[in-house]
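Example A, followed by Example B.
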Amino acid sequence: MSTRRVPRPSPAARRAALLLPAVLFLACGSTSGTGEPVADLGTSLRDALSVPDPDSNYAPDRHDGFGEPPDAADAGPDAAGPGPDSDADPRFDPDAAGPGPEGDARVSPPDPDAAEPPPPPPVSCAGYAELTDQALVEVLHTDLHDTYRPVEVMPDQGGTPNRYTSARRRLFIDIAREARPDGTEGVECLYTGTFFPLAPGEEPTHDTVNTEHVRPRSTLDVDHDSLMYSHEQSDLNHLYPTLPGANSTRGSFPFGEPVSVTNSDWAPAFFGTDERGQQVFAPRPERKGDVARVMFYMTARWGLDLEDHEEAVLKQWDAEDPVDARERTRNDAVEAVQGNRNPFIDCPGLGAAVQDFAAFPPLDTNENLAAP
């Protein structure tokens, strides 16, 4: 036979029972010399029971107003206040610490010594997450078209406005220039890693450093007098410094993995034939992923095709050589000049989400592109 345990009244309830007769006497029977009650019933009860005044600006105590607050560890499960399902308003303690691991709603002032939060990513990749194949390429193309800001055209050495020479100058002055640990400024060959020191504001001569089109010019618009070709060949996202000899060896050959090397003059870049007997060029390993993402960009930006075997190799390079800080820094620099970015750098994995990089009609035309 079980015994039913009768709950003990709380300390506040016991005090109320003891003090209630005195309170009633004070409120109803005691008068001043003028015959007026000393205090109304509400005031007397609040004073007697230490019940907070509802019009007060002070927050109520966490205990019943008498003595020291109970130790939370010894007070039992009902002493901690409203649980997560309670409708009661939480009590605010202005001296409490900030939010705890369990989601306490109290807020602490900011810590002036706390580290700055990391900057947000430059772009959101959320819009691409559910897309694949041509649907993804179409959205990428629209975004790249809409954010594209053509390079400001300056006169060339002959005084003629020239988009390509203007882009080349921005490449060497703003985009590709970097500083070595000893403070020396210069540019580095994409394919070999050879470094060329340059004075501040100096643009190298063509026989010293070439401007490589990672997407060969021969594979761009067939009309080399068109505005389409002018903009494609001047797109800073695929212009890189290279050694003249390495640039010449690569030529317009596709990228690939030589299994039989016929030219190692530019090692760690190699030229040779792949397993199919086709002549291919391979940049140094640490820049293979960079090259792949540039090629993906040019296809999505200008509606260009990628040959199936080269595409497969580039996707492999994209996976094996992930995006690094150098690529991100360059992407920021290109955006500052040209407006758009390479999304294959910002959102790793986009290249693998496209099954086939095939040609398509771009939004750009000779009628809507800026001249010259």
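Example B, a separate protein, is given below in the same form.
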Amino acid sequence: MPDGARVLITTVPFGEVDDTPLRLLRGAGIDFTVNPLGRKLKPAEAAEMVRDYDIVIAGTEPITDDVMARAPRLKLISRVGVGLDSVDLLAARRRGIGVSYTADAPAAAVAELTIGLIIDVLRSVSVASASLRAGRWDRLFGRRIAECTVGVVGMGRIGRRVVRHLSAFGGRVLVCDRVLDEGWARQWGATPATFDEILRESDVVTLHVPLAPQTRGMIGAEEIARMRPEAVVVNTARGGVVDEAALLAALRAGRLAGAAVDVFEEEPYHGPLAAEPRCLVTPHLGSMSRDCRARMEIEATEEAIRFARGEPLQQSVPPEEYAIREG
């Protein structure tokens, strides 16, 4: 990377919790611009904004092949976060554009939010709160985690943390992944299972998989039909993993007891799940703890600075992520 590399920061917020990333860029003498729109970019906006920059410190806005085609200077996409569904990895590799991410930084925050959402939806906390604000005194019965079977789908950084948290509650935990460390699972009191067993036996199904061709729509009408009517679904992974229309139909028909959804196919989300009382919806809060957000931004910035200086990256996206996209 030649001297004078220009950096575009598209993710928002940025530098609000901790201004260290901005100070690092200034200290390195790097010319940078922060997303002037202050919101997630649409594809056309991303294409227009990225074209004159060498490095993008990116959020979840789409960085497609078309966006890259319009950005001849672009040489690095440094993702603030772990999800890579917004980046066309194969197009980046074909165009010689490096991609890095902050894979570990958000895991603790997402795992804790997952536990909070499970408790909320099992105990109807948000439903009862809304009822009280409307002038009613509805003391709703709920369920404890210890009385439930919780199925954890995906045993990566976040899924493993969720299992460790669940071990303190004493309930039955089922786990599955395409590559599963069964010894580790049993060490934390979890039982290896198939995806079908998790669907049929779980009171709570919580999802912790990346969005890829193999996982898109993995919870749809067919899968919901195999679940218990008293079961709930929790998605803090990625929108698209759950078929939102199928989820809504199941909730309205009473085929599921509830759901908690933090991520959506289109964000910001303005769809009908927001009006469904059995569905707890949150605006992609998974990584939004102060410490994890600051760590994500700092690590992504440090990668950008290394690249600008011609130093090796420390958090490049590994080859297996590209292989997943190849199918």
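On Example B: Residues 290-308 form the longest helix (19 residues).
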